[in-house]
Amino acid sequence: MQVGRKSCWRQMQASFYRLLCLIPTGFPVRSVNMQRSTDNITIRQGDTAIIRCYVDDKVSKVAWLNQSNIIFAGRDKWSLDPRVDLVTKGQLEYSLRIQKVDVYDEGSYTCSIQTKQQPKTSQLYLIVQVPANIYKISEDLTVNEGGNVTLSCLATGRPDPAITWRLLNPSAEPLDGEEYLDITGIMRNQAGRYECKASNDVATPDVKYVNVVVNYPPKIKKTQSSETQVGRMGTLQCEAIAVPTPEFEWYRDEARLSNSQGINIQILGTTTILMIANITEDDYGNYTCVASNRLGFQNASLFLYRPGTGRDINGSASVCQSPWLLLACFTCFFFKC
């Protein structure tokens, strides 16, 4: 196989030398400053490449070739590409300039020289680098807690870009994943904005984002009971976290409460407040706050009591235990009673 390649290269050289015989001698007579081995020239896509070739007074004919295609013969341009021209500073340089380089310009370029003694060639290989570009990324998504998630981030570039992921929470630590990021049994603390970065050191990394929403059932995190004198306003407060945002209901014993004379229920985002005006002896007792969404619900007991009875004013959250209240919670949630 190697013998075949050498034979092919000798045939190509012979063609170059025959070409040089046809080139007019109008170019200044000089010799060439040649590299003995093929050199690489690395250029970024869109930039200007100058492939240099230097000569002196022992050269009679020169030409530039790209593989088997003639680009310049002496000063005569054979290429139809308007981006290509010669750089001839003084009479010491016979360099090839390519503007707005693209990937199809990559390859070997040969500066071929005819001296009085023998022909010579200088071969250089042009490498075109392309900045990383993310061309496809997962859409924003919503998933229930415990589900499995796969995020994809596909990018191009030369050399091939490295792809990294981060969850932009306060720590923003790198995640194990490349083109695909797999999350098994996703938890609520894994919700947020995911960053995909593609980089290959050619230019500034390309960065795109995916927002992941994790649904989970309500959890009551804070309650506030009330110690209120007769004739005053009593206020009970209940706060819950959930995705989607929870809906709230209030119960006195097993009766659902609603806005009516003397009772005012307010819902402020994830917090609900039950206000009872002009407290009477009959208003003292146990109240229940229920937070629900389509994934489930949780309830907490709160107390409105007379000053001096010594109750703990901080109610505690607990799962609904009363069968009747369980039924009432589900019925009111689904039928919006």
UniProtKB/TrEMBL annotation:
This is Ig-like domain-containing protein. InterPro entries: Ig-like_dom, Ig-like_dom_sf, Ig-like_fold, Ig_I-set, Ig_sub, Ig_sub2, IgLON_domain. The keyword Disulfide bond applies. PROSITE patterns: IG_LIKE. It comes from Mola mola. It comes from the Eukaryota. Residues 28-114, 119-211, 218-293 form the Ig-like domain. The lineage of its organism: Eukaryota, Metazoa, Chordata, Craniata, Vertebrata. Belongs to the immunoglobulin superfamily. IgLON family.
